[in-house]
Design brief:
- The structure holds four protein chains of four kinds.
- By secondary structure, chain A is mainly α.
- Chain A has ten helices and no strands.
- Chain B is globular and about 85 Å long.
- Chain B has two domains: 127 residues, no CATH class; 203 residues, MetI-like fold, CATH 1.10.3720.10.
- Chain C is of the alpha+beta class.
- In chain C, 30% of the residues lie in helices and 21% in strands.
- Chain C contains 18 helices and 21 strands.
- In chain C, strand 15, helix 14 and strand 16 form a beta-alpha-beta unit.
- Chain C is globular, with a radius of gyration of 24 Å.
- Classes of the chains: A mainly alpha, B mainly alpha, C alpha+beta, D alpha/beta.
- The interface between B and C is large, with 60 and 63 residues.
Chain lengths: 294, 342, 539, 561
């Protein structure tokens, strides 16, 4: 019995969690849309390169600046490259940038914040000061500065984006840990002989994850926008790699001359991705918000 | 006594900001020196040789060791001297003072626009959570925050200026045909009104509309979300139940009781949004040729103009600190509990 | 009376030296005699001599200061005007006389020319100004040196209206070099009164406060936004310009500039990207005026300091692996002149630029590469200046694709403007990059001096060749009519073709869009708008 | 019942939840006559509050009156329009809530809040509203009402806030006052003062009152009639006098039995007295020799509101002395003894228990545990101390003290892994199941998460976790304060049984003298950080010596028995 019951229970738990999720989604069609949208974007990132009808890097002099057609759904760009293929393939790069930046920021920021919130004292002071300092910078300009100083490569965009996101996680983790550090279950765990670090890592930190996940989801969108913004001022991804921001930035110069598709489709893809992250974050917030869990 | 506690609170906030400011001075200095590109080479001009570059490097003081450069930078800073932009040759402080009003006017106007739309939206959504109003509001603000500002800006320009011709050309703060009004506040709209020059006022306002819309669209979300959340919380709180049980009118319950309580976190959000906007201006200013400090920073960054970048960042940081202080003051005035509880 | 607070900011200078302004109507710039020009870049100084003054700022100096001499204009076959490098005419100088020994020249100033403040222009002003061009160092000094003007004592006041310029050596470039934007004449009395011991050349003052005699005066300068020129009604150094007021408005967005000119909201969009130039001229939504820039070529530079490019055959292979036609169509949009597909490796004439003998031939490229130790290809970064992305990006991408066909794998590196100069030109450490040098003085030897002589700024290939250097030094002072000149130039060109450190792509055009009622514009070698000849025609 | 003021018939209230529609109140009938006082008694979830909200029609948006009628003085409340209701609320029926601090708008002066009601119901004009508000404040016995008019809720104590809420409710002299757990969360003395005030004002104005409470004693002491509700239904309606003496329904009987009252033993609280008294072992009398725990001159002082920055601390030179939360207390606890620690909130009893448990470092003084001064070991490093396993705590709030992400089994097993030297999962599972059996926790609940357990089940998990290591001393920090009275009875008995079975010592921290009397051998009464009285548990309750203790004892509601 003691052998079988945990797995049965786990199964039950999963069913129950799914049940909750299904209820929450049914109650909130917008979140359902967000989940579907998110899966779609994720699908593009994973399968995009396989699905792309053309080589996204292949130029074609004869086909430059062609409007959308059956042959080229999203038209072609100034070098005759297929915009649809490029938009599809760009999903992977954009999501990679966003995910890595946010994961780095999350790991560093939440660790800093959790330590500060739990131990207080000088660690709190130090973390708070570091966060204050970063936050007092105009964040986008800071990111610009970092990429300009370190050179524009994907990895530097990731670092810059991660850095400006760290304070958000640090502050949030600090607050979330802080409200829990005197909770009964923490004292109980202390009585059970857990060391302070273990208290933080095993007992408190996992409980802060749900609200942090909301932040992660919202930040993913922001990270993409940030990378796109850097591309727009010329500090982004290197050509010829397809990336939504740089495609919009390049396409922007073609709007006035009537080649709207070059900016519109990557812009729409960018928007769609950010939109799905934001909606998802919003929906997660509703799920996580204890006030709404009646 | 109460005032004493509160003013002490504010002073301590100010004191807390000092380390951050010091941090910023150091970080910007290091960051700017890490920028690639040799300003000396840039300023020596297109046809300079190694000797003339060295000459200019010496002129700019860039040949001295970094700690010495830092020391002289800090010394100047303490005397209120932000240095001289090596690209425009103007004192950085002067350039910032000239451009700051432009950015502030745009940002404030955008914030006003955003708040005027987002707060009623948030309240409406909070009064009927999960209704179609709520969902529509959520979709709208999320869509807004999902659009890259430069893309929105370009799109608005294309539609409203190039195709429809409703908006004036995106040429900064005033259409070509107008002159800036006599400077009092530095805000063209206000200065024009002070000067009773309504034509210029309209022109300045017309220039503001598109960039402000671009920024506002992007910032609807945080304000509306926060309004909604804190309004839901306020409406669900027990004192609202008391108010209902006391038979107070719906108006009074929603606006005097719930709304005022809900506004407190919204004020904080407004402050955060404002400082975020000042930073995010960079891209919008570029699209609309807005002569603000954002575009100034980009230009300076591109030419490795140390003094200008440092000055800009420092100005923003000070602004940020002042803004937080302002929020604290507002908060303190609005919430009797601040500083009184343990 | 004066409702506008005109005395604010930097406009003060123009007023203090000029005529008091009458009241200005609210919608002043709408007036028929006002021309609005959109420019893409920022003007950062009113003084070209100052260190740190950027290239777009030259347009201020060009229009508000006078020089001793200028290049004449000539009518092209199509009726448009262009400058004539071969003919100098006096601007402030009424006449000039070369000494019998050919080692000096005396300029006589026009009798009625005056500075804006009414002071007559004297030989001392000229001397001070020329000395200043050398003394402040940096680019102006280098430019002066190219014309053999290196020392302060080369300039000698003869009398109030006469000044002698002595030559260190005979050079055909000396006189033309006095017509370029650099040796402009400043009101030395005003400047000296503002000079300080730390700043003997009043660089600080003149940076914001022009003191000149040119056809236009600065009425107002809002750095980062606009500069407003107003006509100098007293100008005597040439025919009075037709347009009374000109606003140069900085519009960073290229798309906006195009929208503005197409909608007719501005009179002129200066420096159109090739695509816009092509489309606007096809749509006829505005008049596109421009010409190939003299002595300028867009090139792909190989850097001989890097291993694969030390081998001439690798460079030649690269030159054969470039899709020239595609670049010309999609990078240059057909604007400019092709610089490939020339007939022979041994040129028959000395016209410069002239097409190189290379054309797209992958087989030949592979064959050449196969002879080297890089037969399996190699990897190399391909860099270009972010500031020239409007043509650089497409070009780089197409080159990348072409080179891939012969196994050369490139990664594209966009270098921000500030870093570009350091990395590409000063440190010369970019292995493969796009470059666009153009010489102000329109002679082949001048181009070769900058681009093929060791150590010179635009020789970012690190090309070094004793024979080439000797040829450059020999031809530089030589009159072009000298019978020895042409053979030497042909030899230089042949060497450049054979060794191809710089692979020519095309000769670019400088084109601007003009509203239909705006006329009289032509593009100049210095790539700045000459405003004096422009006019607005009614109807 | 024609003379009744409020007549509720067949009332059914439904809530839409994610698990479908839930009936919170089902077919409830009740009536309140003019001038009558009625108590609705029930445990949590019995639907007593929902009934009152339905009467005022202030159910939140998910709830609705599905069926039945509510007639108030001839007005059909269930079908009246919103305007009528708005006039009715506050004017004719008003309500006093539990949690008085939260029931007031935190950023509005209390005087203004009273004025809002007065003006809304045209009881005052803008000119005389302030005066009337001050009069009302005086009427609810708030000292210096003129000054307090300008006070904000946070500046007042809980009792004072409740007086303000009463003033709000009585502002328009309504005919019916509904008091929804008006004293829950208040100390026993404040509770008495507030209840006395309400009853007095109600009588004075000739109003009717509905008192909603979980406390049968309180209900019977202050009301004429009592209605008992269970699971949304009325199970019994009786006069206050008869409900205690002669309960009719089984549920009422259980409830009456479970209510701690003078003269009964722990075992008497259980519904089924026939259960054999497993724990009938006599209480261990103080064993001679070394006490298990000895506390000497224990002091804990907290710095006043810590300023965040150094600068403000410099400017704040003239700060008050640090407040002493525990002010030099000494006592001993013998092996096998149960010591009660009694006091009102803020008296320092929880701080004391936290220090003994080594969760908090004392400012001075010593704590000897089995002869060793464990007070000197910093709290942070006590987790690795050998005595950690011997000292355990049962927490006040069973919900807060369970990690939401741990199953019951994992929560109970955690001390085993950390301190019990257990490494294998099956070993731990066996131990967990053993203790679970002991605390009466069915095994199938062990794999549930806290939010899937009821309050009583969570309390058992908490107890099991504390007991699994067989500690020598268990501090029970108000272990039943958050529980319904019937669950409290079971938990208290469980604790007594465990003590007998495992031979532990208890330090029982509580505010409830009756409970202390039943469970403890000796009792300490704390006030403002000091011990004011000490003696055998029975003696402290029955023959208090100190004036404060006497006051406490007399404030306990005295239902008619």
């Amino acid at each position: 019995m003691s052998q079988s019951s945990p797995s049965v229970q786990t199964g039950l738990r999963i069913t129950r969690a799914l049940g909750h999720a299904r209820y929450a989604l049914a109650a909130n069609p917008v979140t359902l849309c967000a989940v579907l949208l998110f899966m779609f974007v994720l699908g593009c990132a994973i399968f995009g390169p396989m699905l792309a009808p053309y080589d996204p890097l292949q130029t074609n002099g004869a086909m430059a600046l062609k409007a959308p057609s059956w042959q080229h759904w999203f038209g072609t760009d100034q070098l005759g490259r297929d915009v649809f293929s490029r938009v599809l393939v760009a999903a992977r790069l954009d999501l990679t940038i966003a995910f890595s930046a946010v994961i780095i920021a999350f790991i560093i920021g939440s660790t800093m914040g959790a330590v500060a919130g739990f131990f207080g004292g000088w660690s709190d002071l130090a973390v708070s000061r570091v966060c204050d300092t970063i936050m007092a910078f105009p964040l986008f300009v800071l990111a610009m500065g970092i990429v300009a100083a370190a050179g524009n490569s994907v990895i530097n965009i990731v670092y810059a984006t991660a850095l400006i996101n760290i304070p958000f996680y640090a502050r949030m983790a600090r607050a979330e840990v802080n409200v829990r550090r005197n909770a009964g279950f923490v004292h109980a765990a202390r009585l059970a002989g857990n060391s302070e670090w273990r208290l933080l890592a095993v007992h408190i930190f996992p409980n802060t994850l749900p609200p942090m996940m909301v932040q992660v989801s919202l930040n993913l969108g922001w990270a993409i926008l940030n990378a796109a913004g850097l591309s727009f001022i010329g500090l982004g991804v290197r050509p010829p790699d397809a990336e939504w921001g740089i495609m919009v930035a390049e396409g922007a110069n073609f709007i006035v001359s009537g080649e709207w598709w070059m900016a519109l489709f990557p812009g729409a893809a960018l928007m769609l991705a950010v939109f799905s992250f934001n909606l998802l974050g919003d929906g997660l917030r509703d799920l996580v918000d204890p006030q709404k869990r009646t | 006594m109460a005032l004493g506690v509160k003013s002490r609170l504010i002073l301590s906030r100010l004191a807390q900001a000092l380390p951050a400011l010091a941090g910023i001075v150091v970080v910007t200095f290091i960051l700017t020196r890490a920028l690639p590109g040799d300003p000396a080479a840039y300023f020596a001009g297109p046809a300079a040789d190694a000797r003339s570059i060295a000459q200019i490097r010496e002129q700019l003081g860039l040949d001295r060791p970094l700690p010495v450069q830092f020391l002289s930078y800090v010394t100047d800073l303490l005397q209120g001297d932000l240095g001289r932009s090596i690209s425009t040759g103007q004192p950085v402080a002067e350039a910032l003072m000239q451009r700051l009003p432009a950015s502030l006017e745009l940002t404030l106007f955008a914030l006003l626009l955003s708040a005027l739309i987002a707060i009623p939206l948030g309240v409406a959504a909070a009064r009927r959570p999960d209704s179609w109003v709520d969902q529509a509001c959520r979709l709208l603000v999320t869509a807004g925050v999902s659009l890259p500002t430069f893309f929105t800006g370009l799109l608005l320009v294309y539609v409203f200026y190039f195709i429809l011709g409703w908006a004036p050309p995106p040429l900064g703060r005033l259409d070509l045909i107008y002159l800036s009004p006599p400077q009092v506040t530095g805000f063209f709209t206000i200065d024009a009104l002070l000067d009773r020059d309504f034509a210029t006022f309209r022109a300045a306002l017309a220039q503001l509309v598109l960039p402000a819309m671009t920024l506002a669209l992007f910032t609807l979300a945080p304000i509306a979300r926060m309004t909604r959340a804190s309004m839901i919380q306020a409406l669900g709180s027990e004192f609202i139940r008391t108010a209902r049980a006391s038979g107070l009118s719906e108006r009074r319950i929603v606006y005097t009781y719930a709304f005022r309580n809900a506004m407190l976190p919204v004020v904080t959000t407004l402050g955060m949004v404002f400082s975020f906007m000042l930073g995010a201006n960079v891209l919008v200013e570029k699209v609309f040729a807005w002569p603000g400090i954002g575009s100034f920073a980009v230009e300076a960054l591109v030419v490795s103009d140390y003094a200008a970048v440092q000055g800009f960042v420092l100005a923003m940081a000070v602004l940020f600190v002042l803004l937080n202080l302002l929020i604290d003051v507002v908060y303190t005035l609005a919430d009797p509990r601040v500083g009184m509880e343990g | 009376m004066q409702r506008r607070d005109f005395l604010k900011g930097v406009g003060i200078a123009a007023l203090s030296s000029g005529v008091p302004l009458a009241s200005i109507p609210s919608a002043w710039a709408q007036a028929a005699d006002t021309l609005v020009i959109a420019i893409g870049s920022t003007i950062n100084s009113l003084d070209l001599h100052r260190p740190g003054t950027n290239r777009p700022s030259y347009m201020v100096t060009v229009n508000i200061y006078d020089r001793l001499v200028r290049f004449a204009t000539k009518a092209l076959p199509d009726g448009s005007l262009n400058f004539d490098y071969n003919t100098l005419e006096g601007e402030l100088a009424e006449s000039w006389q070369i000494a019998p020994d050919g080692m000096s020249v005396v300029f006589k100033l026009k009798p009625d020319v005056k500075f804006w403040d009414g002071a007559p222009i004297t030989a001392e002003d000229v001397r001070w100004s020329l000395e200043r061009a050398i003394a402040l160092g940096g680019f102006p000094a280098t430019q002066m040196k190219a014309g053999g003007l290196e020392k302060a004592d080369q300039f000698e006041v003869v009398d109030d209206r006469s000044i002698r310029v002595k030559f260190l050596r005979k050079s055909k470039l000396t006189l033309p070099d006095l017509a370029v934007p650099v040796p402009f004449i400043i009101n030395s009395k005003v400047a000296k009164s503002k000079a300080t011991p730390q700043d003997p050349w009043a660089a600080e003052y003149l940076h914001r406060n022009p003191a000149g005699s040119g056809a236009y005066k600065v009425e107002r300068w809002d750095p980062g936004q606009q500069i407003v020129f107003v006509r100098n009604e007293e100008w005597k150094a040439g025919p009075l310009p037709a347009i009374r007021r000109i606003v140069l408005r900085e519009v960073p967005s290229q798309a906006t500039r195009r929208a503005l000119i197409e909608r007719g909201d501005i009179g002129m969009a200066f420096e159109l990207p090739p695509k816009d130039a092509k489309e606007i001229s096809e749509k006829k939504s505005a008049v596109v005026v421009g010409a190939p820039i003299a002595n300028c070529i867009h090139v792909l530079n190989t850097n001989l300091n890097f291993e694969p490019f030390k081998d001439k055959r690798v460079r030649q292979a690269i030159a054969y692996a470039i899709p020239y036609q595609q670049i010309f169509e999609q990078g240059a949009y057909g604007r400019g002149l092709p610089m490939w597909g020339g007939k022979s490796f041994t040129p028959t004439d000395i016209a410069w630029p002239q097409p190189s003998p290379y054309s797209t031939d992958y087989d030949k490229a592979k064959e050449l590469l196969a002879q080297t130790e890089f037969k399996n290809g190699f990897e190399v970064p391909l860099s270009f200046d972010l500031g020239t992305a409007d043509w650089g990006e497409s070009t780089a991408l197409i080159i990348q694709e072409g080179l891939a066909k012969i196994g050369v794998k490139t990664t594209i590196d966009k270098v921000p403007g500030a870093n570009w100069r350091t990395m590409a030109l000063v440190d010369k450490k970019l292995p493969l990059h796009l470059e666009n040098f153009g010489g102000w003085l329109d002679t082949p030897c001048y181009y070769f001096l900058w681009a093929y002589a060791k150590g010179n700024l635009f020789n970012s290939s690190n090309y070094s060749d004793a024979e080439m250097e000797q040829l450059i030094n020999e031809t530089l002072p030589m009159e072009m009519s000298d019978p020895a000149y042409a053979p030497k130039i042909r030899r230089m060109i042949a060497k450049a073709f054979d060794e191809v450190p710089r692979i020519p792509l095309w000769q670019p055009s400088l084109e601007s869009g003009l509203r239909k009622d705006v006329q009289g514009y032509s593009s100049w070698y210095h790539r700045q708008p000459e405003l004096r000849t422009m006019k607005i025609v009614k109807g | 019942m024609s003379g009744s003021l409020l007549q509720v018939e067949n009332l059914t209230v439904e809530f839409r939840t994610r698990n479908g529609i839930v009936r919170a109140v089902e077919r409830v009938d009740l009536s309140v006559g003019r001038g009558e006082t009625l108590a609705i008694v029930g445990e949590s979830g019995s639907g007593k509050s929902v009934t009152s909200y339905a009467v005022m029609r202030i159910l939140d948006s998910a709830g609705s009156i599905a069926q039945g009628s509510v007639m108030f003085s001839g007005i059909d409340v269930a079908n009246a329009d919103e305007d009528t209701m708005a006039t009715l609320r506050g004017r004719e029926i008003s309500m006093v809530f539990q949690n008085p601090r939260l029931a007031l708008n935190p950023i509005r002066k209390i005087g203004r809040q009273i004025e809002d009601v007065l003006i809304r119901h045209v009881q005052a004009t803008h000119n005389n509203a302030k005066q009337k508000a001050i009069e009302l404040l005086a009427k609810v016995r708030i000292a210096r009402p003129e000054e307090r008019y300008d006070a904000y809720p946070f500046e007042l104590s809980g009792g004072m806030c409740q007086r303000v809420v009463i003033a709000l409710a009585l502002a328009c002299k309504p005919r019916l006052l509904i008091a929804d757990e008006p004293t829950t969360g208040l100390d026993v003395r404040t509770q008495k003062a507030v209840m006395d005030l309400i009853v007095e004002l109600v009588a004075e104005q000739g109003m009717s009152m509905i008192l909603i409470t979980h406390d049968l004693g309180l209900a019977a002491a202050y009301c004429e009639r009592v209605i008992v509700m269970e699971k949304g239904r009325v199970v019994e309606a009786a006069s206050a006098a008869s409900v205690f003496k002669d309960p009719q329904e089984p549920y009422t009987k259980r409830l009456v039995r479970a209510t701690p009252r003078p003269g009964v033993s722990l075992r008497d609280l259980l519904p089924d007295p026939e259960i054999p008294y497993a724990a009938q072992t006599p209480r261990t009398e103080s064993v001679e020799g070394q006490p298990l725990l000895e506390v000497r001159d224990l002091v804990k002082s907290f710095a006043p509101a810590q300023s965040a920055s150094l600068l403000s601390r410099f400017m704040n030179k003239s700060v008050a002395e640090p407040a002493r939360s525990v002010d030099g207390i000494s006592f001993t606890l013998a092996k096998g003894e149960t010591l009660g620690l009694v006091g009102e909130s803020g008296c320092g009893k929880s701080t004391t228990s936290a220090m003994i448990m080594r969760l908090l470092d004392p400012t001075s003084g010593s704590i000897f545990f089995a002869g060793r001064d464990i007070g000197a070991i910093p709290a942070r490093s006590f987790a690795r101390d050998a005595d950690r396993a011997r000292l355990q705590l049962v927490f006040q709030d069973p919900t807060d003290s369970l990690n939401p992400r741990f199953t019951a089994a994992r929560a109970i097993a955690d001390p085993l892994y950390r301190l019990g030297g257990v490494t294998r999962a099956d070993e731990a599972r066996t131990a967990v199941e053993e203790i679970a059996k002991m605390v009466g926790l069915p095994h199938d609940l062990l794999d549930r998460f806290p939010h899937q357990l009821s309050g009583g089940q969570k309390a058992r998990v908490g107890i099991a976790r504390a007991m699994v290591l067989r500690p020598d001393l268990v501090v029970l920090d108000e272990p039943t304060a958050a529980l319904d009275v019937s669950v409290q009875a079971i938990v208290l008995n469980l604790l007594a049984d465990l003590r007998a079975e495992l031979g532990m010592s208890y330090l029982f921290v509580s505010h409830d003298l009756q409970v202390v009397r039943m469970l403890c051998d000796r009792a300490l009464v704390m006030r403002a950080g000091r011990i004011v009285e000490e003696g055998s548990a029975a003696a402290v309750l029955e023959d208090p010596q100190h004036a404060y203790t006497r006051e406490l004892v007399s404030a306990i509601p005295h239902p008619p028995l």
